[in-house]
């Protein structure tokens, strides 16, 4: 176990992005857990630079797609074009063929594009006209959306939100951090200065080690109890899916690894719970209207206070 | 009459001491199980779903005097055994027993205080 990995990555990201340690840490957890991230926040709060810096310091190939309402699935996954020299159709890969894809403003894309992206996230491959192409390994999507936008957007439905391993809310920075950001940007900062923390071989080794992190039977039962509680809770219309719980245990593993352990504790599960679960739970409207609850994260926290972990 | 009062006081004192003493702990598993139950019972401000880390944080904040470094090492070894399939650590760390005892004694003191003069 290498407790220094987290520090190495955070130190690199910090040289470009100020005040986003928590978010960078979560990106690292999601990456090690083999999942995708949904970043939510208003424009201009360093979502793109964070994703770009993260990709660079992980030594990953990075591409960005700015989603718009007139996009087609082929703009993202690629398609067949006619090669006049060879006189045949050949597959031209779209921007999805990368290690880290920044899907900017995913809720601006029409449902067909969203669905194509989410399918590639799930399958880690794309199929165009019967030809299946594997996406590069590792493959991670960091999608962003602005929760304040209501015009010209296509909100992600529940089944698509469920594909995201974690959702991270990016708040505005506090005043001292904002001052630092302004000062730093007077001299042009660029991610070009970032050095990769890993070689490709090291990265594969790290991912292999994360998969070896032990999850005890009791921790699995604990997760099952949590899932059952989310489905019983009157404040929720939709509880956690089995996929959500699988995602939670993967995040627990990654968090344990980054903490220098080869086993998952209930603490790892609890720490990751609101990032993994809150975007998948749907509040019951009557509970919202009666003021019983305002945020699914609140319900998650509440459930974790009620369920006894194995000790 | 005085003899009877003295005998009653001795019995009460003995019972209180017995209550304050945690059950025997022959290995780390038992020790941490007893400690977990003690925390559940005697630190009511902690919710049922507390983790070891949260309990430790709360107890540190409330000023419980302990060699927290030794306790933490012992907890890490216990967690490795409990959740990680590692070997059970040898011997019970005295700080774990001390914490369980401290928790029980504090509660006895708290109950006595509530029953003392001025309380309703």
Q: What topology does this entry show?
A:
The complex is a heterodimer of chains A (311) and B (120).
Chain A: H1 4-14, H2 21-32, E1 37-40, H3 47-57, E2 62-66, H4 73-77, E3 78-83, E4 88-93, E5 100-104, H5 111-123, E6 125-128, E7 131-134, E8 140-145, H6 158-161, E9 166-169, H7 175-186, H8 200-211, H9 217-232, E10 236-238, H10 242-258, H11 266-277, E11 282-283, H12 285-289, H13 296-306
Parallel strand pairs in A: 1-8, 1-9, 2-5, 5-8
Antiparallel strand pairs in A: 3-4, 6-7, 10-11
Helix pairs in contact in A: 1-2, 2-10, 9-10, 10-11, 11-13
Chain B: H1 2-20, H2 28-42, H3 52-61, H4 68-84, H5 94-115
Helix pairs in contact in B: 1-5, 2-5
Short structural summary:
Helices cover 45% and strands 16% of the residues of chain A.
Structure description:
The complex is a heterodimer of chains A (311) and B (120). Chain A is built from 13 helices and eleven strands. Chain A has helices spanning 4-14, 21-32, 47-57, 73-77, 111-123, 158-161, 175-186, 200-211, 217-232, 242-258, 266-277, 285-289, 296-306; strands at residues 37-40, 62-66, 78-83, 88-93, 100-104, 125-128, 131-134, 140-145, 166-169, 236-238, 282-283. In chain A, the strands form four sheets. Chain A has a five-stranded parallel beta sheet. Chain A has a two-stranded antiparallel ribbon with strand order 3-4. In chain A, a hairpin with a 4-residue loop joins strand 3 (78-83) and strand 4. The model of chain A has no long low-confidence stretch (mean pLDDT 90). The radius of gyration of chain B is 17 Å and the shape is elongated. With 120 residues, chain B is mainly alpha-helical. Chain B has a domain at 26-105. Chain B is 69% helix and 0% strand. In chain B, helix 1 (2-20) crosses helix 5 and helix 2 packs parallel to helix 5. The two termini of chain B are 28 Å apart. The longest helix of chain B is centred in the C-terminal third of the chain and has 22 residues, at 94-115. The A-B interface holds A 214, 216, 218-219, 261-267, 270, 303-311 and B 32-33, 36, 47-54, 79-80, 82-86.
């Amino acid at each position: 176990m290498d407790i220094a990995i987290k520090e190495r990555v955070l130190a690199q990201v910090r040289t470009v992005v100020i005040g986003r340690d928590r978010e960078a840490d979560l990106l690292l957890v999601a990456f090690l857990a083999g999942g995708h991230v949904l970043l939510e926040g208003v424009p201009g709060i360093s979502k793109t630079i964070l994703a770009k810096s993260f990709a660079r310091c992980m030594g990953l190939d990075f591409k960005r797609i700015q989603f718009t309402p007139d996009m087609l699935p082929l703009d993202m996954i690629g398609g067949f074009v006619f090669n006049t020299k060879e006189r045949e159709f050949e597959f031209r890969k779209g921007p999805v063929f990368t290690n880290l894809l920044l899907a900017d403003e995913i809720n601006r894309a029409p449902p067909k594009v969203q669905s194509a992206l989410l399918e590639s996230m799930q399958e880690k491959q794309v199929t165009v006209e019967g030809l299946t192409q594997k996406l590069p390994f590792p493959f991670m999507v960091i999608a962003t959306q602005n929760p304040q936008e209501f015009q010209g957007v296509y909100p992600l439905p529940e089944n698509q939100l469920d594909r995201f391993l974690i959702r991270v809310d990016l708040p505005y920075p506090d005043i001292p951090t904002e001052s630092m950001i302004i000062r730093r940007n007077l001299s042009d900062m660029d991610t070009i200065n970032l050095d990769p923390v890993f070689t490709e071989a090291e990265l594969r080794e790290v991912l292999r080690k994360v998969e070896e992190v032990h999850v005890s039977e009791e921790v699995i039962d604990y997760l099952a109890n949590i899932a059952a509680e989310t489905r019983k809770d009157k404040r929720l219309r939709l509880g956690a899916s089995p996929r959500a719980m699988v995602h939670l245990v993967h995040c627990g593993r990654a968090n344990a690894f980054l903490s220098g352990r080869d086993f998952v504790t209930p603490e790892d599960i609890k720490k990751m719970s609101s990032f993994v679960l809150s975007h998948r739970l749907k509040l019951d409207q009557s509970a919202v209207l009666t003021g019983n609850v305002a945020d699914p994260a609140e319900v998650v926290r509440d459930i974790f206070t009620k369920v006894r972990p194995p000790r | 009459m005085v003899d009877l009062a003295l005998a009653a006081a001795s019995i009460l004192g003995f019972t209180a001491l017995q209550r304050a003493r945690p059950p025997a702990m022959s290995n780390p598993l038992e020790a941490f199980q007893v400690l977990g139950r003690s925390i559940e019972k005697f630190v009511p401000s902690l919710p049922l779903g507390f983790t070891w880390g949260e309990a430790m944080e709360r107890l540190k904040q409330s000023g419980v005097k302990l060699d927290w470094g030794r306790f933490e090492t012992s907890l890490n070894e216990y967690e490795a055994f409990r959740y990680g399939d590692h070997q059970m650590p040898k011997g019970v760390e005295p700080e774990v027993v001390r914490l369980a005892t401290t928790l029980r004694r504090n509660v006895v003191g708290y109950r006595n205080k509530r029953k003392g003069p001025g309380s309703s």
